[in-house]
Write a structure and sequence with these properties.
- It is built from 6 helices and 10 strands.
- With 227 residues, the protein is an alpha/beta fold.
- A 5-stranded parallel β-sheet has the order 3-2-4-1-5, sandwiched between helices. A 5-stranded mixed β-sheet has the order 6-7-10-8-9, covered by helices on one side.
- Helix 3 (71-89) crosses helix 4 (109-118).
- The longest helix is centred in the middle third of the chain and has 19 residues, at 71-89.
Length: 227
Amino acid sequence: MTGILYGVGVGPGDPELMTLKAVRVIRETGVIAAPGEDVRETMAYRIAVQAVPEMEGKELLPIRMPMVMNQEEQRENHRRGARQIESVLDSGRDVAFITLGDSTIYSTFSYLQEIVEADGYETRLVSGIPSFCAAAAELNVPLTTWQEQLHVIPARQSLHAKLDQPGTYVLMKSGSRMAETKKMLADSGRRVRMVENCGMPDERIYQNLEEIPDDAGYFSLIVAKEP
């Protein structure tokens, strides 16, 4: 029998926000995979190992998936990573691919899951606390109330959005294009707050648009509410 591939969300940064199920699956799985050259250097591993210290004795499988713009190169990286995982599954061992936040939201795992499933292997998703839910808690504000809508968008790919729909907007991973993102937010007239590196030791909170620096880090999450 072949093994099962798990996509395990480890939450946004604080190991106390890992779910009991994520901890159990990691404990019970012999091979831990993560995107990068060295699993131990990934943010997901640094978070998870604090809650599951026995990870240090497990077999680690680095999946090289560099961020490139060329789509064919991306697809080849995904295929190569899937083949690495499938070679372990063929030995009858399960693999837990750990990923930041939730395994269903803008997750690298989704690309691998599609290929591995198409090749006939079983996959299972383990949900984690999404970064925008954790960020709202850090800001001590509700994301939505009553009948408000919630719009979650990748800021880097949405720099010309009008942000004109009713409800609350969440802009994820906005740090790489912060100056342009701030201009878009200023034009929207919304009440803006931001959490940088949510749940991590270097977390920073900004309570208005004017406080947000143009050089904010990659893991910057913005909550923009109607005035």
